[in-house]
Specification:
225 residues; single chain; 2,3-Dihydroxybiphenyl 1,2-Dioxygenase, domain 1; alpha/beta; four-stranded mixed beta sheet; 9 strands
Amino acid sequence: MSAGEAVGKVAGPAPIDMKFEIVVIPVSDADRAKEFYSKLGWRLDADYAHESDFRVLQFTPPGSSCSVIFGKNVTAATPGSSQGMYLIVSDIEAARRALIERGIKVSEVFHGAGDKYVGPDEPYIFGAIRVAGPDPNHGSYRSFASFKDPDGNGWLFQEITTRLPGRIDSTATSFATTADLVAALKRASAAHGEHEKRIGAADPNWPEWYSDYMVKEQSGAELPK
């Protein structure tokens, strides 16, 4: 068996769940960072200090199962060296606007040129090219906006409305926030309107159609027509 063939094949019993929950980000001033992440509207979960040589703060973005921690003597990494940290949103314009209203400087929305990956931090890293505006086809995974904390740690909004196949159970769906659910319902409503135009009649089974559309959209399955 080649190395390529071995990828994805697991012998023995199923592995235990491993939930990725914490990202450590390096900052130079814990209080300044605390003020910034509070301003984002993220939830403060902890602010713990031990005497004068150690302090750890934990923040969680709205709807996220993963948190960030920072503080004093938490990491030896250079402040500002964490880059390409992704925040997945279902409506990138709304996410960008929400932070701007909180006084946060956020880049314009951008996408990649052709099939070029846009890069997590710098506009031209690894030959990537950033093009102003959202993806013209409004493709999932293809529209971005970026911002930085006071130390220069780099965050990236990525708009995802339809997951790649296999990423989510094709028979189930979930939404992290009310805003995500509302956005999904609006997309289902627009698609259902096109469906009714195609069939030339009102569809009395719209609740079932909406549900089927929303589950398939999130799982990456083929959408109903």
